[in-house]
Here is the input.
Amino acid sequence: MKEGKIRFNSVFVSNHVPSDSGIEELKDWCGKFQKNGLTPEFEGDYTGNLSFRLKEGFMITSSGMKSKKNLTDESFVYIKDYDRKTNTFYVEGKQMPSSESIMHQLIYNSSTKINSVFHGHNDLIVANAKKLGLSVTEKEYESGTLELAKEVLKVLGNNKLVVLKNHGFVSLGKTMNETGVFSLSILKLSKEANR
Here is the structure.
């Protein structure tokens, strides 16, 4: 469940702190995810990663954050480009991008209608996935791997949320609000299903 090790190369095209109007909304959703137990603490770090699409690339939480509350702009990384052949991200910021950046990249590549991707962890959502009729990946892969990202794409279809087998979930939408609200609604349904 822990934020996995970095399995890609990062080239910093700039060490400037990322700047975009969407960062404030993403900070808010990071706080809500943590408050609701969707990015739980595991071995001293908080798991999960949230992003939103930009005209070029996407903005994502940095790797290994100790908390997702009260974030600053330095807590985010602007991923400007990705070279799949060399498995290299070209980034702007002061931190390494989340270890799950490959999964976010492949999801954004899969549809221009997806503008935000939130990856979280919650045992109730995972345990009640079948009962709630949620799509679940068939195989388990280590976090941060290309294999895990490809496994998500296999069941993504038109789903707004996919459960990663024995791992967590990834939700997506046209807006951050849509993605976040849907995630919280699934959490609520999972709690009700568990009673």
Notes: The chain has a mean pLDDT of 92. Residues 9-193 form a domain with the L-fuculose-1-phosphate Aldolase fold (CATH 3.40.225.10).
